[in-house]
Amino acid sequence: MMSKVLYYLIIKPLSWLPFGVLYGISNVLYVVLYKVIGYRKAVVMGNLTASFPEKSEKEIKAIASRFYNHLADLIVESVKFFSISKRQALKRLHVVNPELLDEFANKGQSVILVGGHYCNWEIIAVGLDLYIKHQSVALFSKLSDAFFNKVMLESRTKFGIKMVTTKDSARYFEEESSKVTATIFGADQSPTYNKNVVWTQFLNQETALAFGTERYAKKFDYPVVYGAIQRTKRGHYSFELSLITDKPNETPLGFISVEHTRRLEKQILAEPSNWLWTHKRWKRKRQEDESIITF
Fold this sequence. Notes:
Blueprint: H1 2-15, H2 19-36, H3 41-51, H4 57-80, H5 86-92, E1 93-95, H6 99-105, E2 111-115, H7 122-127, E3 135-140, H8 146-156, E4 162-165, H9 169-175, E5 181-186, E6 197-202, E7 205-210, H10 212-220, E8 224-233, E9 236-245, H11 255-270
Parallel strand pairs: 1-9, 2-5, 2-8, 3-4, 3-5
Antiparallel strand pairs: 6-7, 8-9
């Protein structure tokens, strides 16, 4: 009941507001998140300090401040997506080179798209299917609140993308392998201890990489394409595609996982504030029998 009240009385009405008004709210939200309550501030500062040991305390605080500005914008933009129009979605997202995917779609070949939680990854779920010939599919973790899970799915799928829970991913790949799809993986979460991983150096730290992207690419022989999201101006994003490999089974074990991580790292190093620093990315520690992979 409370979920419905929150959605229909607050979230949905807010989503009808113009972007300009929402960004005014974002400016206030930034102060609340960063200056007043310090939302997950210890996690953010710890992650930044470990990732950039060469930077001074002043530089770390400057990145943190910009990050909370980004986080506030991310929140209000995600609210806006509950009522965004197709025209606005096309205006706010520009896919730079969809022809890279068209080449595979024209041959009836499915692909895997991989990226990280950089800039506003939610806009890819909202707008990508409007640009590409493949059926776009996004893997996601099911929300614990059934009502919010329902309205989120309705919102994100309204322009064509299909959403599949990570729990159902294995079955989805088996059942949909005959269809021409572009399946999106967000591959920068901290994997649990029961998952197979690849270890590498990422942002100055030993980092466990989830192996799902590479495992499915090799099993179904799907080309792997990295998607780089960039903010071109406030509320506007570009999405540029680059091929990692179109022959996954000819690559050594770990190559795909490490390569898409390197490309994400390059983006983060260029502008650190646009990554999601509030999550505990480095919870899992490497065991003595686990090796670091570099290429």
